[in-house]
Design a protein that fits this description.
heterodimer, A: alpha+beta, four-stranded antiparallel beta sheet, 4 helices, B: 613 residues, alpha+beta, Nucleotidyltransferase, domain 5, Gyrase A, domain 2, five-stranded mixed beta sheet, 16 helices, rod-shaped
C-alpha cells in the first residue's frame, strides 16, 4: 500500500473530523433526547413512588391500632364467618356464663334488620352473684365475637338474696356489611 | 505575592554558572558545585548532587504543589537578533516571530529555547540604530535564543527536584539591580574565565557579549609578572582585593592588574560604547578596578560595582528576586515548546491566553507525575460519575422502581382490607356502651344506705334507675355528685317519693351518658374511713337496715376473706374503666379479689404508693 502524503493525511483527518461532527450532531441529538426522555420518565416514576410512600405512611399506625384492638377484643375480623358467627357467639356466651357462675335463663334471638349492620340481635336473662354478673358483663368485651351490648337491666332477685338478675339485649355485628364500604370514604 | 504564587508552592531563584549552581531560597543561599564534561554537558554525578541539594533545600512532599524556580543562565551559547516585524503582525506575533526565527537562526524554533522583547518605540536615542521601533509601520523586537538541549539538561535536574523552571539570561537579570541612571549603560559580570557584557540603550536590550577575560586573566598576569606559581598568584590576587601590598611586590601587582585591565578595556571598547558601566561578579572585586576602567575606556562617565563586597546572593539572583517582587519584570523569558507560560512577575495579571497556557502546563505537569496523575484520574472519574449518575440512575433503577410500584399497586387491595378491619374494630369499640363505667360512677356517687331496685342502661347511653335513698338531702347530694362526675350530660330526678314511714325516699332518676371521648376517665374513690370489708350483710328492701351502703337489695355478700383497704386514690384510664367498676364494687362490698384474672385484661392501674413506702 502506498504511503500517504502529509496533505492526504490532513485531508483524511479533516474528513474524519467533519464526519464525526456530523454524526455527533445528528445522532447526538437523538441520543440526548432519548436520554432526557428516560430521565423524565424516571422522574415521573419517582414522583409516583413518593406519593405512594406518603399514602402508605399512615398504614403503619393503622396496622398497629388494628393489632391492638384485635388483641383487646380477642378477635380477628378476617376469620369471622357469617354463617357460623351467631352460633359460635351463642356458644361463647354460654361458656362464659357457665365459667363465670352465672345461671343463664331463656335466650331469644331475632332476625337481622337488612338496613342495619347487625347480623342478629339476642336477648337473654341471667342471674348470679353480683361479682359474677359484673364479670360476665366485662367478658363481653373480650369474648372474641363482634357483640355489642344493646341494653342491660339489673334488678335484684327477690327469691335469692345476694344475687342479681340481668336482662341483656345484645347485637352481633355483620362484618360482611363493612366489606362493601369504601375505606375512608 | 498573589494567590497563584501561593498555589504554585513558592519561588526560588537560581543562577547557573559554568562551575556552580547558586540558589536563593528565602534568605538562604545554596551553592552546589557542578562539573562539566569536555562537551560542556553536566556530569551525571553533578546532576545527582544538584537534585539532592535542591530536594534537601526544599523538603517538599510528593503531594505538595511544585515550586517555581527562576533560573538565570550564562550567556555562552545565547544569540541575540533584532527583528523587524510589520505592525499588523501583532495579532499573531508568536507565529510570525517563529517564522522569522526560522529564517534568521540556523536552527528551527522547535530546537531553540527563545524569548523576545519589544523594543519600545521613541525611546531609542541612538541615531545609527535609527529609532527603529515603529518606523515604516514596523515594530522591532529583540529575540534571544539558545539551543533547547542546553536548557533540557537543567530542566531534567529541576524536574528531579520537583520544581518548575523558568529560564532567563543571567546578564539580563543582573541589569535589574542597576540604577538605570543613564540612557546607555552596560553591565559587566566578571567571572573566573570569562565576562559577560550586556548593554542597553534607552532601557532596551542592545547587545550581549561573552568576553574571554576573567579573574584567571589577572591571575595569569600576576603569575607572569612576579614569576610565581598559579596558586601564589591567586592568593596575591585575593590579597589585592582587600588591600594592595606595599613595596616592589605591590608595585608589580599593580602593574600586572593594570595590564590585564587594559586588555579588558580594549575588549570593552571594541564591543561597547556608553556612559555608564556597572560591574558585578567575583572577578570585579579589585578595589581600583572601576576607577581604572573609567580611565581606560574613552567616553565612560561612570563605572561602579553593584554587588556588596562580602558573600551573599549574586547580582543575577538579586535581579531575579527583584523582578518577581517588583513591577519591573524581566523582558525576556526563554520558552521551550513545552514550557509553562507566565512571566517573571509574580503579581502580573494573567490574561486569558496566559491562563490557558498555565492550564496547559499544569496538565502537563500533572501528567508527568504518577502520584498527581493518580489523583487526577480519581478526580476525573468522580466528575464523570457526578455527571453521569443522574442519567445512569434513570436507566438502571427505572425497571426496578416500575416493578416495585406495580407490585405495590397489585397489593393495594390489602390496604382496603386493613382499612375495613380498622373501621369495623373502631365501630365495635365506639358502639360499646360504658356500662361498667356508669356503674362505677353510680357506686362512687351513691350515699350510704342507698338501695337500687332496678337499673337500666342502653346502647344510646340512657340510664334509668329506681331505688331508695335515705332522705331528700342525700338525693340532692347523689344528683350533684352524678352531675359533677361529668360522666352524664343530663341527670333528671323524675320522681322522689317519701316512703310511708318517712324514713326513706323512693327515687326514679334518668341520666344521659356523654358520648365517647367527651366522658372523663373514671376513677375509683377510696373507701370511707373506718370501713371494714366483710361487714354486715346488705339488707333487702324491708329488711333491717344496716351496714354502710347497699347497691342492690339483697346484694349483701359474705366476706370471702380480708381485703386490704385501698392505699389511696386509684386513677385509671377509660379503657380500664370496666375493671375499675368491678374493683369498686369489690372494695366497697368485700367481693373476692379478681373476677377472672386469666381472661380479664390487665387493668392499667396506677396506685398511689403509701407515704413511707
Amino acid at each position: 500500500m502506498r504511503t500517504l502524503s502529509s496533505s492526504e493525511k490532513r485531508t483524511i483527518r479533516f474528513g474524519v473530523i467533519v464526519l464525526s461532527v456530523y454524526f455527533l450532531f445528528t445522532f447526538g441529538q437523538k441520543g440526548w433526547r432519548f436520554i432526557q426522555k428516560g430521565r423524565q420518565d424516571y422522574r415521573v416514576l419517582a414522583g409516583e413512588a413518593t406519593k405512594v410512600r406518603a399514602g402508605l405512611r399512615p398504614y403503619k399506625d393503622k396496622i398497629l391500632l388494628s393489632k391492638k384492638m384485635m388483641e383487646t377484643f380477642h378477635m380477628d375480623p378476617a376469620k369471622l364467618s357469617r354463617s357460623s358467627v351467631v352460633a359460635d357467639a351463642s356458644a361463647a356466651i354460654l361458656k362464659a356464663a357457665t365459667a363465670g357462675g352465672v345461671a343463664l335463663g331463656p335466650i331469644r334471638e331475632t332476625g337481622s334488620r337488612q338496613s342495619g349492620r347487625e347480623l342478629t340481635s339476642m336477648q337473654l336473662d341471667c342471674t348470679g352473684p353480683i361479682s359474677s354478673v359484673l364479670a360476665f358483663l366485662h367478658k363481653f368485651e373480650s369474648i372474641g365475637f363482634p357483640i355489642i351490648l344493646d341494653s342491660i337491666q339489673l334488678t335484684p332477685e327477690p327469691s335469692r338474696p345476694g344475687t342479681l338478675k340481668l336482662h341483656l339485649g345484645l347485637v352481633i355485628l355483620d362484618f360482611e356489611q363493612w366489606k362493601g364500604e369504601i375505606p375512608n370514604a | 505575592m498573589n494567590w497563584l504564587s501561593g498555589l504554585n508552592g513558592g519561588s526560588l531563584y537560581a543562577e547557573i554558572r559554568p562551575r556552580s549552581l547558586r540558589i536563593l531560597h528565602g534568605g538562604e543561599t545554596l551553592v552546589i558545585p557542578i562539573e562539566r564534561q569536555p562537551t560542556g554537558r553536566l556530569t551525571d554525578a553533578s546532576k545527582h548532587a544538584a537534585i539532592q541539594g535542591l530536594s534537601t533545600l526544599l523538603k517538599k512532599k510528593n503531594w505538595q504543589p511544585r515550586a517555581r524556580i527562576y533560573c538565570a543562565i550564562e550567556a555562552r551559547g545565547v544569540s541575540l537578533r533584532r527583528l523587524s516585524l510589520p505592525a499588523s503582525a501583532n495579532g499573531d506575533l508568536e507565529r510570525v516571530l517563529r517564522l522569522q526565527i526560522e529564517s534568521e537562526f540556523p536552527l528551527s524554533p522547535e530546537s531553540l529555547a527563545w524569548g523576545y522583547s519589544r523594543i519600545e518605540p521613541g525611546k531609542h536615542a541612538s541615531p545609527e540604530r535609527g529609532s527603529a521601533a515603529k518606523h515604516d509601520g514596523k515594530n522591532d523586537f529583540m529575540v534571544v535564543a539558545l539551543k533547547r538541549e542546553l536548557l533540557d539538561e537543567y530542566t531534567s535536574i529541576f524536574a528531579g527536584a520537583r520544581v518548575t523552571p523558568i529560564f532567563t539570561i543571567a546578564a539580563l537579570a543582573r541589569s535589574q539591580v542597576c540604577p538605570r541612571a543613564s540612557k546607555t549603560y552596560a553591565v559587566l559580570d566578571v567571572g573566573r574565565s570569562q565576562s559577560e557584557l550586556i548593554s542597553f540603550i534607552d532601557g532596551n536590550l542592545d547587545s550581549l557579549r561573552v568576553l574571554p577575560w576573567g579573574g584567571e586573566t589577572i591571575t595569569r598576569a600576576i603569575e607572569q609578572k612576579l614569576s610565581v606559581s598559579a596558586e601564589q598568584a591567586e592568593n596575591l590576587k585575593l590579597q589585592c582585593q582587600d588591600s594592595m601590598p606595599n613595596g616592589e611586590v605591590g608595585q608589580k601587582l599593580h602593574e600586572a592588574i593594570r595590564d590585564s585591565l587594559v586588555t579588558l578595556a580594549k575588549s570593552l571598547t571594541a564591543n561597547w560604547s556608553g556612559e555608564t558601566l556597572y560591574l558585578t561578579g567575583r572577578g570585579s572585586r579589585y578595589p581600583e578596578m572601576p576607577e581604572r576602567l573609567a580611565e581606560l575606556i574613552p567616553g565612560l562617565l561612570r563605572c561602579e560595582r553593584l554587588e556588596p563586597a562580602g558573600e551573599g546572593p549574586t547580582a543575577a539572583l538579586l535581579g531575579l528576586k527583584n523582578s518577581t517582587e517588583s513591577d519591573r519584570p524581566l523582558s525576556i523569558v526563554l520558552r521551550r515548546r513545552d514550557a509553562r507560560g507566565g512571566d517573571l512577575r509574580a503579581g502580573s495579571s494573567p490574561s486569558a491566553s496566559n491562563w490557558l497556557a498555565v492550564g496547559k502546563s499544569e496538565i502537563r505537569e500533572i501528567a508527568a507525575q504518577p502520584a498527581l496523575m493518580k489523583w487526577a484520574r480519581l478526580a476525573i472519574l468522580l466528575g464523570v460519575c457526578i455527571i453521569v449518575f443522574p442519567y445512569a440512575q434513570a436507566f438502571l433503577l427505572k425497571p426496578f422502581l416500575a416493578k416495585k410500584l406495580a407490585r405495590i399497586r397489585a397489593e393495594s387491595g390489602r390496604l382496603a382490607v386493613i382499612d375495613r378491619e380498622l373501621t369495623f374494630l373502631q365501630y365495635l369499640k365506639n358502639a360499646q356502651p360504658p356500662y361498667l363505667d356508669a356503674l362505677t360512677v353510680l357506686a362512687n356517687a351513691a350515699p350510704p344506705g342507698t338501695r337500687f331496685d332496678s337499673l337500666t342502661l342502653n346502647r344510646r347511653g340512657e340510664l334509668a334507675l329506681k331505688g331508695n335513698i335515705g332522705n331528700a338531702q342525700q338525693v340532692v347530694d347523689f344528683r350533684t355528685k352524678l352531675i359533677k362526675s361529668a360522666f352524664f350530660s343530663s341527670v333528671t330526678v323524675e320522681e322522689q317519693t317519701p316512703s310511708p314511714d318517712r324514713q326513706r325516699m323512693t327515687v326514679r332518676i334518668l341520666a344521659q351518658c356523654k358520648p365517647a371521648g367527651a366522658r372523663p376517665p373514671v376513677k375509683v374513690e377510696p373507701l370511707p374511713p373506718g370501713f371494714t370489708p366483710g361487714g354486715p350483710g346488705m339488707p333487702f328492701p324491708g329488711m333491717m337496715p344496716g351496714g354502710p351502703m347497699a347497691v342492690f337489695p339483697g346484694s349483701g355478700m359474705p366476706p370471702s376473706g380480708p381485703t386490704p383497704p385501698p392505699s389511696g386514690p386509684v386513677i385509671r384510664g377509660p379503657e380500664g374503666a370496666s375493671r375499675a367498676a368491678t374493683r369498686s364494687f369489690q372494695t366497697r362490698y368485700g367481693l373476692p379479689e379478681g373476677l377472672n384474672p386469666a381472661e380479664a385484661p390487665k387493668p392499667a392501674v396506677e396506685e398511689t404508693p403509701k407515704p413511707g413506702q
